């Protein structure tokens, strides 16, 4: 029930209900025990849209085995985890934590190296695949920008005499038609390169349309094939040794692609290869459920039209694993 519904049912003010809930949550989460925690996941969530810089984010630490929220901090990066690091030292459990799942943000890796030196860093495979999907989007946008630039240059060079105006107009129309057609292919098919191969098999029209797009835009085709190869590695490699060999081959292909964004990702993967291999060295250490939990946090903000009282909001995040939002609420 909402605060308003509870207040109406009990015949009290909304403020009374709200303060009662805050007191109850403070008692429940005044001290979150860390004993027995072995695997944790760290992620940052963009929540406070009206704030600036790091204050737009909260950083959430969760127990990967139980789903409990262990820490909620304002901000992002290593600075947001200072209080949690202090708790780890005081509780004496730092040496017992075996692994930490995260994205490739250097700030989180630095936190682990400084506060949990015995823990294995696991770069979550969800974020690794998301990285190449982001690259596909960048390549698509770059292709659209290139089409615009080429068209503008072509029109600029058509500064002809009056006698040739009729010819120019026809040519301009052809160029504009070509531009719009190419833009429609890229813009209208934005989600196609992000689809997985097995999903495309169920949709022959989408598969054919994607094949045409990848044939016409080679950089996009290279990125798509490397994405599917990366997914195949995660699906089929059974041991860290096999995964390392396949990932090193993947890195070599990305570096030889002559596509700047893919070369950058290859360098990032090589630099963080040990953390990427943590997926195989520590099976089950994944933030796969993190995005679902982040959606629950956004649902929480939506329900209250934003939170001006950060203390209240933070307590509600701790309590989120106990709540099951209705589908109609999300």
Distance between the termini: 15 Å
Order of helices and strands: HHEEEHEHEHHHHHHHHHH
* Average of per-residue pLDDT values: 81
Beta-strand portion reads 5-15%
Strand order of the largest sheet: 3-2-1-4-5
Please give the oligomerization state of what you see: single chain
Structural class: alpha/beta
Describe this structure in words.
This protein is α/β, with parallel strands linked by helices and 330 residues long. A five-stranded mixed beta sheet has the order 3-2-1-4-5, with helices on both faces. 59% of the residues lie in helices and 9% in strands. Helix 2 packs across helix 14 (310-319) and helix 9 runs antiparallel to helix 10 (240-255). It has 14 helices and five strands. The mean pLDDT is 81. The chain has two domains: 31-123 and 286-322, Ribonuclease H-like superfamily/Ribonuclease H (Nucleotidyltransferase, domain 5); 126-281, no CATH class. A hairpin with a 5-residue loop joins strand 2 (57-63) and strand 3.
Please outline the helices and strands.
Blueprint lengths: L2 H8 L3 H16 L9 E8 L10 E7 L5 E6 L7 H10 L7 E4 L3 H10 L4 E4 L1 H32 L8 H23 L9 H4 L3 H13 L1 H19 L3 H16 L4 H12 L1 H9 L8 H14 L6 H10 L11
Describe the structure concisely for a colleague:
The protein has helices at 3-10, 14-29, 82-91, 106-115, 125-156, 165-187, 197-200, 204-216, 218-236, 240-255, 260-271, 273-281, 290-303, 310-319, and strands at residues 39-46, 57-63, 69-74, 99-102, 120-123.
């Amino acid at each position: 029930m909402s605060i308003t519904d509870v207040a109406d049912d009990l015949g009290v003010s909304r403020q009374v209900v709200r303060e009662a809930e805050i007191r109850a949550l403070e008692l429940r989460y005044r001290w979150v025990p860390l004993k027995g925690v072995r695997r944790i996941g760290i992620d940052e969530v963009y929540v406070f849209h009206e704030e600036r810089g790091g204050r737009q984010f909260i950083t959430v630490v969760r127990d990967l085995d139980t789903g409990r929220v262990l820490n909620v901090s304002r901000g992002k990066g290593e600075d947001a985890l200072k209080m949690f690091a202090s708790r780890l030292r005081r509780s004496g459990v730092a040496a017992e934590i075996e692994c930490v799942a995260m994205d490739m943000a250097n700030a989180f890796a630095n936190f682990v190296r400084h506060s949990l030196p015995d823990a294995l860093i696991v770069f979550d495979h969800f974020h690794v695949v998301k990285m190449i999907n982001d690259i596909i989007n960048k390549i698509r946008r770059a292709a659209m920008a290139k089409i615009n630039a080429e068209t503008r240059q072509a029109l600029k060079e058509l500064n002809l005499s009056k006698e040739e105006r009729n010819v120019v107009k026809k040519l301009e129309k052809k160029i504009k038609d070509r531009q719009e057609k190419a833009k429609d292919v890229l813009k209208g098919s934005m989600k196609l390169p992000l689809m997985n191969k097995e999903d495309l098999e169920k949709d022959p029209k989408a598969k054919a349309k994607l094949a045409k797009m990848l044939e016409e835009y080679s950089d996009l085709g290279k990125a798509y094939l490397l994405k599917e190869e990366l997914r195949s590695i995660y699906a089929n490699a059974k041991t860290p040794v096999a995964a390392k060999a396949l990932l090193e081959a993947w890195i070599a292909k990305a570096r030889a692609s002559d596509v700047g964004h893919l070369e950058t990702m290859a360098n990032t993967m090589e630099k963080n290869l040990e953390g990427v291999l943590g997926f195989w060295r520590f099976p089950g250490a994944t933030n796969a459920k993190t995005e679902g939990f982040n959606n629950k946090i956004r649902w929480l903000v939506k329900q209250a039209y934003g939170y001006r009282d950060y203390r209240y909001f933070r307590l509600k995040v701790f309590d989120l694993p106990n709540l099951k939002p209705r589908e109609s609420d999300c």
